[in-house]
User: Which sequence fits this backbone?
């Protein structure tokens, strides 16, 4: 195969280098395009733009493949733990026993947040969305580590990694406790990462709490399958903010804000609201499908469609299967799960969805599972943030310590007025 592509522009020929990734993904290198030709590449929404080289996660959207560092996500969801998968994503290999023990120790040891930060929670109204609290609290963490914020110093970065992973979990649980008016429950470092989170969420000082191992296992699986998804909106945001050499906390806080939107991680909450509405109105899924196809309506079938997957999202397959298993184990029945399955069945038979390759994505069934675990709806996107954290950290770290850390700065095609003059206010229409 030729290792250049020929571009003919205004009668002149240019050779553009080709790049081929380890899984045969192909790209045309246009980094010198503007300098050589005066043209830029136009790609709104970046659907065809490779913004970086990365060793972390591979997706084949046509075949429905998702691997972290080469390992299929289904295998990790079945055999690994979230802590181990986090290590894999961040450091590039599965940890040996000593590495895992050290990493787990660090996560346990750094689970508390500075006591002064508890007072921040008092400033939020009880109606505050936990994503608003989470993003600002995470950015505030940077105030407590002024000596560890240099993205170019590997020792400082590694000092922060377990702190970020551990403390954000605590912040997330506290934001829920505050929203329901209960006292915060301090972390119990004898517990595993997921069990500790569930304890902080659901324990009260007046009682002892048994943590159901099935619930812990389900949470572990959910966090693993959310752990990375290459250059999605929030991860690209973390890289973009990080590319200015902003610190890890600031970059992750920006990622949390990007994830919040209903087109991205906020979709899990939106799916459950949609299913609840269908349930309340008698369970007719056809109406929702018709509304989603109506071009005069803004309504979209939440939890359906994906920029990269043009087949069934492998994460949705795993969650759907686990919904049946976990609800069965917990002895729960959920009418919303039945509605979700019927909705999927009707949509997948419909030519509108078939022609556009719109399938359930990760958010379609995750809310049903979170609900079965007792997680309240406004915490679903927070749960997604906890899962995505190792991915954000891995990309931020890769960019600074291993990759190309040029500042992200896209160009545009200006389409506004060409010349205009300042008009004093009395002369304006
Ligand atoms: N319901 C109805 N129509 C849809 C949907 C949907 N959920 N998703 C896409 N379409 C239509 C869209 O209107 C367009 O139609 P047409 O060609 O007639 O204009 C066509 O399908 C292609 O869609 P697109 O908007 O060009 O696709 P995109 O890659 O820009 O957007 C998406 C991807 C995920 C934002 C979009 O599918 C969507 O809004 N889905 C619902 C929200 C959702 O579930 N988001 C979670 C995504 S997965 C997890 C994550 O990233 O956090």
Assistant:
């Amino acid at each position: 195969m030729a290792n250049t592509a020929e571009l003919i522009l205004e009668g002149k020929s240019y050779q553009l280098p080709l790049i081929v990734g380890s899984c045969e993904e192909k790209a045309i290198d246009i980094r010198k395009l503007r300098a050589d030709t005066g043209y830029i590449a136009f790609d709104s929404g970046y659907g065809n733009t490779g913004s970086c080289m990365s060793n972390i996660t591979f997706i084949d959207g046509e075949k429905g493949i998702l691997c972290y560092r080469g390992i299929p996500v289904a295998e990790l969801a079945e055999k690994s733990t979230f802590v181990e998968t986090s290590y894999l994503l961040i450091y590039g290999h599965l940890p040996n026993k000593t590495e895992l023990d050290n990493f787990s120790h660090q996560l346990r040891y750094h689970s508390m947040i500075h006591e002064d930060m508890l007072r921040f929670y008092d400033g939020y109204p009880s109606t505050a969305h936990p994503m608003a609290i989470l993003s600002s609290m995470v950015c505030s963490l940077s105030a407590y580590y002024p000596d560890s914020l240099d993205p170019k110093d590997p020792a400082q970065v590694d000092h922060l990694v377990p702190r970020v992973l551990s403390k954000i979990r605590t912040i997330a649980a506290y934001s829920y406790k505050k929203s329901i008016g209960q006292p915060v429950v301090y972390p119990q470092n004898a517990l595993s990462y997921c069990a500790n989170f569930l304890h902080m969420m659901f324990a009260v000082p007046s009682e002892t709490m048994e943590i159901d191992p099935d619930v812990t296992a389900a949470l572990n699986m959910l966090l693993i399958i959310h752990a990375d998804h290459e250059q999605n909106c929030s991860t690209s945001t973390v890289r973009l903010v990080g590319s200015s050499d902003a610190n890890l906390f600031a970059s992750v806080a920006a990622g949390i804000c990007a994830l919040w939107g209903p087109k991205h991680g906020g979709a899990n909450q939106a799916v459950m609201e949609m299913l609840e509405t269908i349930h309340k109105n008698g369970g007719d899924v056809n109406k929702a499908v018709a509304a989603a196809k109506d071009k005069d309506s803004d309504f979209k079938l939440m939890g359906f469609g994906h920029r990269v997957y043009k087949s069934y999202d492998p994460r949705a397959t795993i969650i759907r299967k686990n919904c049946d298993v976990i609800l069965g184990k917990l002895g729960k029945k959920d009418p919303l799960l039945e509605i979700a399955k019927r909705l999927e069945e009707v949509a997948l038979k419909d030519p509108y969805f078939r022609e556009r390759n719109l399938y359930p994505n990760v958010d379609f069934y995750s809310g049903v599972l979170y609900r079965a675990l007792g997680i309240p709806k406004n915490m679903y996107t927070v749960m997604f943030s906890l899962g995505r954290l190792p991915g954000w950290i891995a990309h931020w770290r890769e960019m600074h310590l291993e990759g190309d850390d040029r500042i992200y700065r896209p160009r545009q095609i200006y389409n506004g007025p060409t010349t205009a003059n300042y008009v004093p206010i009395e002369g304006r229409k």
About this structure: The first strand starts at residue 4 and ends at 9.
